[in-house]
């Protein structure tokens, strides 16, 4: 599924929302998004979490960083950062960071973000293992019949 292409109007509305809530100009919002995206990617790379991948553009290390406009149905559009990378086991990870929430308490926001990586990986590996067992059972039933 292709991500929604944002119009110039969406981008302008996100900038106005950020300005009203934080007093930042459009250029400051864009610079802040790039800086935080780079810092998060450098921290991930420093811990050796991302692995080389052909799926994602390597902006910083093996991490792809995109500045985006987050538009939910019941709120104003707001600026955000999409961080995408692969981890060991060919698992793709994508974080969407809301800039305004990040600016409230950056240390706590990033701590929570990094704390989610471990459980996310465990859950994905468990689903993968369960799926492999289910596929093996179906294959056995199809090739050997249901005894």
Strand order of the largest sheet: 1-2-3
> What is the C-alpha radius of gyration, as a whole number of Å?
20 Å
Low-confidence stretches: none
Approximate helicity band: 40-55%
Order of helices and strands: HHEEEHHH
Mean pLDDT equals 81
Q: Main β-sheet: number of strands, strand sense, barrel status?
A: 3 strands, antiparallel
What spatial form do the alpha-carbon principal axes imply? elongated
User: What amount of the residues lies in strands?
Assistant: 15-25%
Structural class by secondary-structure content: alpha+beta
**What's the total helix number?**
5
Number of strands: 3
Assembly state of the chains shown: single chain
Through-space gap between termini: 41 Å
